[in-house]
Amino acid sequence: MSYAIIGLGKIGTAIAQAFAHQGIEVAVAGRRPVDALAAQIGPSLIPLRVEDAVKADVVILAMPFAAHREIARAAESWQGKIVIDATNAFGVPSEELGGLPSTAAIAKVLLGAKVVKAFNHLLADVLAQGPTTPQGGAAGRVSL
Length: 144
Prior knowledge:
This protein is α/β, with parallel strands linked by helices. The chain has one domain (3-128): NAD(P)-binding Rossmann-like Domain (Rossmann fold), CATH 3.40.50. 31% of the residues lie in helices and 16% in strands. The protein has helices spanning 10-22, 35-41, 50-53, 68-74, 102-109, 124-128, and strands spanning 3-6, 26-29, 45-47, 58-61, 82-85, 114-117. Strands 3-2-1-4-5-6 form a six-stranded parallel beta sheet, with helices on both faces. The mean pLDDT is 89.
């Protein structure tokens, strides 16, 4: 199974670090070059163009919500892909969402993809810390 993260802002970087800590290869891409940040995070991150990263089996959307239509056009087909939506639609008028939750609006343009919402319920710095025990201590690295 292949993985890609589109967007290396705070959330995308935290997710990329979890992959890197486990030594799992993951493609990373963004609207701006991500080569330097990917190299800084770890050798299991493969910087690609968005058009190439969306070919992965599992695509994590960690870019601004407004870019979802552009990302949708980057893939020839979304059929059978798993898409993890980590975007936030803060400030997006409900009319623009067609009365749908933001993830449903994204799923509507990613025809054939299985879309699930994840990761955006935590602040990026909390996500970057990895899991903790009920006593508040670190439980080790996030397993992906």
